[in-house]
Amino acid sequence: MVEIELKFQLPEKQKKAVERAFKKVKARQIQLHAKYYDTSDRILSQHGVAIRLRLEGENWIQTLKAAGESHLHRIEEEIFLGKCEQPPDLNLDLYQHNRSVQTLLTEILGDQKDQLALQFETIVQRTFHVFELHGSLIEACLDDGEIRSSQTHQKICEVEFELKSGDAGTLIDFSQSWVEQYQLWLDVRSKAERGSLLAAGKTVSPATHAKSFVLDKQLSPEIALQKMVINCLNHLLPNLAAIAGDVAEPEHIHQARVALRRLRSLLKNFGKWSAHVNPEWEVELAALFRQLGTTRDLDVITLEILPRIQQQTDAPVLHIDSETQVVEDSSVVFRQPSTTKLLLKLLEFSYRQPRQSKQKNVSLKHVVSKRLDHLHHQLRHDAKHFADMDAEARHRTRKRVKKLRYIIEFVATIYSPKQVEKYLKYLQKVQNHLGTYNDLVIAAQYFSQQVHQNPEFNFALTWVDVEQKNVLVKVEKNLLKFSQLKGFWE
Q1: Pick from 122, 125, 159: nearest CA to 31
Q2: How far apart are CA 137 and CA 171, in angstroms?
Q3: Taking a C-beta distance cutoff of 8 angstroms, is the pair 1, 151 a contact?
Q4: 48 and 164 fall within a common domain
Q5: Which residue, of 232, 342, 389, 430, has the fewest CB within 10 Å?
Q6: pLDDT in the model for residue 458
Q7: Is the pLDDT at 189 greater than 70, yes or no?
């Protein structure tokens, strides 16, 4: 079966208020003790699969969970074992009549099925109540407890909302009021993921990258847009969870920025395909993107540009003063109710049942081609005038290149693969050189500020100036080559 639920982290200071809310509706409580199994190299976790034995009150249940279509959905297969005199052992033979589970485990584990061993446990007191809203049944849970490995432990304080029956949109609507009232923030990391990291002595999973997208040209434009947004959210939400949880590495920040750009590109270019798209979403996403900008810029300067300067010149070792690296805590921003509510609105849009289109027989390929043609001609114009542009206009060209590339990645499968590949080859070269140029512009601005405190940054400024001129020649050359290309959609 497919489980539809949303999980949120609950700030400790709000726990008593949530407990009072559950007490008011006479919620029930149950003790949950779960044991999670995996191989020593945690191959199940790497594939987004979890297998556990859980004592729920007096009854044991064996459960397998796997990733679903999105972070709203998870595949769940439960086997009720009932009361047992002794704690049961994990038994994969219980799935012998479930072909889909057998296939999944064989693909992942191969001949390692007998190597599954206990990796960590969770001990939780669950307070729960089923609410009815607009004909839908929603189970709200407060999980208070901890994850335990052989070496350490970690606190659990979460609120979950699971759709027992009804509409996913109602589930999302229901959660909105709790987010506002109790400062909940959306966290797509499961207990299984957190436990696997704890057992491995790690704090965060690797950054999530965008997954390839296959577009069905038979879809209506609105449904196509919904599926594209789901793809973006699958890219964005795990990285935002790492940032909000204050465990993010530079790559999480970079991938969150990429995901936000992809999502904004969709809404800007295809937002008119649905009457349910709110123009304010793009504005709010832009604000989140800017929040991550300073952090990313400093990472590029520290990890990429300064090392190149040290390798290629005799400049003295340059350090960024620790005080200048202090940026506004992005984790706070991504825990704010306004951010969580925006993400929930995007999720709600993704699963909304589309209305009957007023434009009958609208060709998806036709509307996509029309938009690609518009973006292509913008860049052809920029290519002719790039040498005379100021810094702001050049930056706009860079954003247009990125926007076009992201859009192509979403729609590529409805066109000739060879033609798309050729086009992207030239576009990628332009994007790479423009990206390098932009990094150098930002570095020059930063080094100019540092010169007043440390004159040795003049070495860096000189290097950046020379490098900018070299890269600019490459940008102009590749832009002109690109401008001569014929669109693969024509």
Answers
A1: 125
A2: 9
A3: no
A4: yes
A5: 389
A6: 85
A7: yes
> 174 and 75 in one domain?
yes
Q: Can you tell me the distance from the alpha carbon of 409 to that of 93, in angstroms, rounded to the nearest whole number?
A: 42
Q: How far apart are CA 121 and CA 55, in angstroms?
A: 11
| Closest C-alpha among 76, 55, 54 to residue 67 | 76
In 3-state terms, what secondary structure has residue 457? helix
Q: Are 70 and 230 in contact (CB under 8 A)?
A: yes
Q: What is the DSSP letter of 324?
A: G
Q: How far is CA 183 from CA 9, 329, 335, 481, in A?
A: 9, 17, 8, 52
Q: What's the one-letter identity of residue 313? A: T
Q: Are 267 and 277 in contact (CB under 8 A)?
A: yes
Q: How many CA atoms lie within 13 A of 226 on its CB side?
A: 19
- Which stretch of DSSP H or E encloses residue 295? helix 279-300
What residue ranges in 22-170 does DSSP mark as E strands? Answer: 28-38, 50-56, 59-67, 73-82, 117-133, 136-148, 153-165
- Beta-bridged to residue 50, according to DSSP, are 65
User: Do 162 and 113 meet the contact criterion of CB atoms below 8 Å apart?
Assistant: no
Q: What is the domain range of residue 55? A: 2-203
Which residue reads 């150098």 in tokens?
Answer: 440
Note the pLDDT of residue 361.
66
Q: State how far the Cα of 404 lies from the Cα of 424, in Å rounded to an integer.
A: 10
Query: What single-letter amino acid sits at 128?
Result: F
pLDDT for 326 beyond 90? no
CA distance 63 to 60: 10
Q: Is 362 within the bounds of a domain?
A: yes
Whether residue 300 sits in one domain with residue 427: yes
Q: What is the pLDDT of residues 25-82, one digit of tens each?
A: 999 999 999 999 999 999 999 999 999 999 999 999 999 999 877 777 788 899 999 9
CATH for 471: 1.40.20.10
Residues 6+ apart with CB under 8 A from 5: 72, 74, 160, 161, 162, 163, 171
Q: Are 137 and 165 in contact (CB under 8 A)?
A: yes
Cβ atoms within 10 A of the Cβ of 465, count? Answer: 12
Lowest mean pLDDT among 94-103, 177-186, 195-204, 275-284: 94-103
pTM of the entire predicted model: 0.89
Confidence of residue 358 (pLDDT cuts 50, 70, 90): low
- Contacts of residue 357, defined as CB under 8 A and 6 or more positions apart, other chains included, come to 220, 221, 222
Q: How many domains are contained in the chain?
A: 2
Residues 272 and 384 in one domain: yes
Could you tell me if residue 302 is inside a domain?
Answer: yes
The overall average pLDDT reported for the chain is: 91
- Using the 3D structure, point to which of 178, 203, 228 is the last residue of a domain: 203
